[in-house]
Amino acid sequence: MWNPAQYERFRDERKRPFFELLARVDAAAPAQVVDLGCGTGDLTLVLAERWPSARVTGVDSSEAMVAEASRRAAPERVRFELADLAGWTPAAPVEVIFSNAALHWLPDHPALLSRLVSLLAPSGVLAFQIPANFDAPSHRRIDEVRGHPRFAATLAPVRRGQAQPLDFYEAHLAGLGLTVDAWDTTYLHVLQGEDAVLQWLLGTTLRPVLAALGAEESQAFLDMLRPLLRADYPATARGTPFRFTRRFVVASRR
């Protein structure tokens, strides 16, 4: 379902939240670090550089992404694993569970977070970032086209991303005994290229939609969506302005 090349198209914009999340993780010398939703693995290697004594595991549910990650030159202490993020279990408690733009694809965040906390070592840290723009024009337009009679039945079971309110994450994780740092950041990306917002969405949000539709119906879906996005996100001489809110959480057992 995932296309590494399409995802990498706006790599600079996508990796910025990773570094902003990482900067807030206070873990001196963890033994085990896990990158849940590692994608192409380049940022997993950044985690290995941050903690040079740690064994680092990148986990992703996409065969294409794990294959791309596994082709990267990496120290022996770095490995990549194909697994469903919802059911992944480490062999031993983990000092740092890090996830950049992946957990929004999983359902039931209360149960998910409780489970991830249960996998932490006594001084462990859970740090994650997820998109929080599901009420933005881009997603409203996708939902509008998803509801068209031509596509509605096929797409009804296809998962959507989701984010709980910021207050939920603080309260739930604090209730589990963790110290929580939680915040939102809204970026204003100025994307380059024709139909730039559509190209952005083709790297992430639209992947499960198009996978369910098949080639011919996917083209029809995109033909219906494209003019709506052009109207909501008009291009300028500088590029196409695109507001994007992301939700950050760092929860520590200390």
From TrEMBL:
Q: Which InterPro entries match?
A: Methyltransf_25, SAM-dependent_MTases_sf, Trans_acon_MeTrfase_C
- Which GO molecular function annotation, any one, does this entry have? trans-aconitate 2-methyltransferase activity
* Residue stretches making up the Methyltransferase domain: 33-124
Spell out the CDD domains in the cross-references: AdoMet_MTases
Q: Which GO terms describe its biological process?
A: methylation
**Alphabetized UniProt keyword annotations:** Methyltransferase, Transferase
The reply to whether Electron transport figures as a keyword in the UniProt entry is no
- What name appears for this protein in its UniProt entry? Trans-aconitate 2-methyltransferase
